[in-house]
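User: Assemble these into one structure.

Assistant: Restating your components, then the assembled model:
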Amino acid sequence: MTTIQLLKGHPLSSKEHASHALLYMWKIRKFEEAVEDLFGRGMMHGTMHLSIGQEASPTGMCLALDLADQITSTHRGHGHCIAKGADLTRMIAELLGKKIGYCGGRGGSMHIADVETGNLGANGVVGGGIPIAVGAGLASKLQKKGTVAVSFFGDGAMNEGAFHEAANLAAIWKLPVIFFCENNHYGMSSSTEKAFAIEKLADRGLGYGIPGVTVDGNNVVEVYEAAEAAVARARNGEGPTIIEAITYRWKGHSRSDKNLYRTKEEIEEWKHKDPLPRFISIVLEKGLLSQDEIDAVQQQAHDQIVHAVNEAVKAESAEPSGLLDAVFKKVGA
Amino acid sequence: MTTIQLLKGHPLSSKEHASHALLYMWKIRKFEEAVEDLFGRGMMHGTMHLSIGQEASPTGMCLALDLADQITSTHRGHGHCIAKGADLTRMIAELLGKKIGYCGGRGGSMHIADVETGNLGANGVVGGGIPIAVGAGLASKLQKKGTVAVSFFGDGAMNEGAFHEAANLAAIWKLPVIFFCENNHYGMSSSTEKAFAIEKLADRGLGYGIPGVTVDGNNVVEVYEAAEAAVARARNGEGPTIIEAITYRWKGHSRSDKNLYRTKEEIEEWKHKDPLPRFISIVLEKGLLSQDEIDAVQQQAHDQIVHAVNEAVKAESAEPSGLLDAVFKKVGA
Amino acid sequence: MADTTNRMLTMAEAVREAMTIAMNEREDVFLMGEDVGIYGGAFGVSSEMQNKFGADRIIDTPISELGIVGAAVGAALAGMRPIVEIQFSDFTAQAMDQIANQAAKIHFMLGGALHVPLVLRTPQGSGTGAAAQHSQVLETWFANIPGLKVVVPSNPADAKGLLLSAIDDPNPVIFLEHKLLYKIPGRDAVPEGVERIPLGVSKVLRHGSDLTIVATGIMVNKSYEVAEKLSAEGINITLIDPRTISPLDMDPIHESVQQTGRLLVVQEGPSHGGFINEVIARVSESASFGSLIAPIKRLAGMNIPIPYAPQLERAAVPQIEDIEVAAREIVKNWR
Amino acid sequence: MADTTNRMLTMAEAVREAMTIAMNEREDVFLMGEDVGIYGGAFGVSSEMQNKFGADRIIDTPISELGIVGAAVGAALAGMRPIVEIQFSDFTAQAMDQIANQAAKIHFMLGGALHVPLVLRTPQGSGTGAAAQHSQVLETWFANIPGLKVVVPSNPADAKGLLLSAIDDPNPVIFLEHKLLYKIPGRDAVPEGVERIPLGVSKVLRHGSDLTIVATGIMVNKSYEVAEKLSAEGINITLIDPRTISPLDMDPIHESVQQTGRLLVVQEGPSHGGFINEVIARVSESASFGSLIAPIKRLAGMNIPIPYAPQLERAAVPQIEDIEVAAREIVKNWR
Ligand SMILES: Cc1ncc(C[n+]2csc(CCOP(=O)(O)OP(=O)(O)O)c2C)c(N)n1
Ligand SMILES: Cc1ncc(C[n+]2csc(CCOP(=O)(O)OP(=O)(O)O)c2C)c(N)n1
Ligand SMILES: [Mg+2]
Ligand SMILES: [Mg+2]
């Protein structure tokens, strides 16, 4: 069990906020690098979907959320989990199929949930989490809890029927839901230019009566500001918002990707829009953090990941016994 | 086998066109009345969804189509079938479970298709026909046939994922498809005010890059004009259009409907917007047809329905033998 | 427990009563579906309930099965106990991702951290003249997915007791109501109070030493008639209704087969994949196998989509006569 | 026909070859699916095909399974012969309305006026560490729907011949490819030309008088290894691969059971609803019943969602050892 230390608020509102935002982006980056390394060394099974290059989006969004607010996440969900406060050791342990992993080895990379931090689960189904977030928003409204539900999903997911039906329900019932679309330009090999006949994906909202906003998803400040406004709307009972965060994944879709559908140049170009230096230059410019402080934050993230990997590697493997009993929750339990 | 006599063109462009439009609206009205009667007398099995009050929409749309153009229809599909040119005897025979029925008694009211007139089938599934029409549009494009595919569906169907996915495919591939939404204000008991958070359902198109137009669905002239423009766009390779035709069903959703969700006054109000007198007053005013000629058209429709019912009643019942063989089309046949 | 009130309810009334009890008992229960409000649902099951509980607890939805079930899954994860009505079971097809890939798997896949206390109620079956897209029995789809419980009540009293248990269950339960049973009263009185019937317990409706019939849903009623009729001729039938096809309680079935040596299994849906096969397989691989005198016989729907015309529709699923012929044959031919 | 070329292809190559032949033969055939173009499909099955046939015949789609299958149904009705690839069979859940309520029923329900010559290809099965939502065997859903043909090839040569027939078939065919077979060459050479294998004909892979094993997909390969191993010990096994589970060709199975008196049926998916049950039921109600020496035995996936960790995933579906133990037991214990 971790102590969850989340610091809500504008990433430029204080020294603490700035280093917090930076820490979380670094944690995501270094987590993904560690996963790639573990996979490369044959220590990890299955597949992986890395979010390197996209760190500002979940970080900016989650900086606007309370611990009790809920999220649903995707196959590319490590960043969402971390930004919402998940424990790094249990995450890595899950990827390694260990007993202490978030799912006890039963779910893996695509299925991490964390009740404590309001993470209702990553999802292997494109679009699968969107109606679920709407349901969490409905529960919040029915129970008058005042919580907000955020669904993270990719550009590709927007073409699933699940998005459509979920968006309309949230709109007509004015639910406290945020549809957070990470537009990284591709759904696997399918470019947004080919998969959509509109320029801005946030414009999908027009058909439902949902306001949509498009932001630079690699600028954590811009993401945060849009997120804060959407959260305020949601808590005020004004209904859902679509946030489209424009970003890019540096790595292939998954391990099988040969990157044939995009150019090296395009990838390089986006590496220059790396959300980390982007934010660092802002905080330096504002004088919020010194270079030493920034280096310290980076080191802190590094240490956390190294610690998590070490702990996870040492942990006990999940065992097949008991699988049958794990299918149903015991009645009356 | 009928000789199909369809007369394409603007309903006010000639005497013939005017009486053709009027005939088809009368045929639909009288067909539905006959169905209600057969049902009431216990001669018809199952359920029925009547389109009384909505006759101008399918008539106006189909006046803009060639015989080779294709449609998909709905549970409330009698009007679409008739407007596209279906044989009335085979339709009634189907409702009565007769061998000569369009489906040999296997489909009933919700499943009438007619290859000859390009009717790819009514559908018991709300939204089920929409992606199918898109597929017909895709085939037209791949085969360079120049035909247009029209999907008729209700306001309620627009909230199904099927609409969403179909609309986007048609938009990105610029397919010759028309999404014809008969907005009769209700999906069963669910009013458009409650089921949508937008005013005009045609605005759903904004999210896909599909132009949408809202017309008075009880005015066959207005419907025709929108249809003609959409057909032209489609044939020109400019892609799909959404037509929203505002209309109203006078009768309950189906036989189980107690009409608790709407007022008598509302129903009465809409009866004053009856598409038949509406069009008749226009043609009288324009001097296109005399009252006598109008009466003759009405009589003609009446005679056709009476004939169809008589023939159908006399026809042989469908028999259970051979059902198993009817599941698959024979290989090589 | 004996019923003192002798209340003869229809299935629709019994289901409504169970939902009403549950909603009175606990605030986290709500009903959501197309036309469940003022319309009372397509089959009148929730009639008047919106008046009683308000539009926030009897929630009318747009026509969006995937969205509705998904929202119910989300609400369940967030602490509610949704009951979803899908207007016809055929349209669970629209929602299969949320049913099979989400609801059924979440508890297991997420390591037990979350669970999905969701009841999906939906009418199934043919006999209404609504043809192939409105008449299916799709229970096999659900039974094939680990993580779902599947209930198929054959009468109002069971429906009430089983639904109360389903709503209490912390797991997703698919509750399949036969349309033709909605409006007819059952043979047994429905107890007034809160008597739960646990999921996963087969019920033996009658005892006989010549033949074991296992059936579910409306086929139980048809089989019952046959059993009564044949008993007059000295053919004594044990009739067993598993009530939940997943989990499937085999104990009384084995017990009975070991006495009768003959087994007939009846279902409405097409055989391939059906629960009847599961029963046969379990008997075939068990000790009961040795007791069999006759080859096991099954009766199922024809391997066709349900046709519209009444004379065709009747032919598509097992009728009383079919069960009678089969029962007679097994007993007569295998002594 | 004997193969002279001795070409050892993988399943991915064989499927690609069949599609290529069909697309060269007829203009109305096209392939549509997510990432089937330049990416070559998630498992590389259509690799390079877009270069050859262009983007109008190898059509990349957005992530919209329901829309894609629906569009394929419509295109089929309008005279084309679409092949649809669904990236993982788990996501046929999204498209079940178009598969089960539309494609499967149209020909019958519309009175035969129209038909749907559609092939839906999709990878199924576990063993890749992709967990519960990417590892299912959902063949039972399809087999349970009258109007669909369901093919489960176990090797590249069969895959090619069966796919050629599927594309020719005027009805909707679900073609289920096992992911683990994509990259390994089969035991048999794949004939170069156009040799169609008709749908609905079981194949007897080897003959033995002690035990009949019926299996499909990857379980055929596992069973084969067991049969070879046990033959060294004097346990002789007949191995039958039905290849299409719907229609299901029982003749060779009956024939074999009548010789061996012992039957073991193996599938990867969970038992409830599985094809194994259909085989058992058909044997149980047939004349073969009388020949049985041993209770019929089945091996199926555990009744759980597929877990992620390799040691858990292995435990979830029958492995070679499990088949071996079962085969040995049946033969040893029932003489
Ligand atoms: C319903 C469904 N269809 C297809 C897939 C296979 N798949 C996994 S991720 C992916 C691309 C998703 O694109 P996007 O939503 O943009 O997210 P990104 O990967 O870019 O983060 C696809 C096609 C899936 N998991 N679920
Ligand atoms: C997928 C699906 N969900 C629900 C139903 C039940 N149903 C049949 S018609 C109908 C209302 C349809 O409303 P709309 O699309 O507006 O058409 P209208 O009846 O008004 O012509 C409903 C809910 C269905 N047939 N299919
Ligand atoms: Mg993307
Ligand atoms: Mg309507």
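Residues 62 and 84 of chain A are 6 Å apart (CA to CA).
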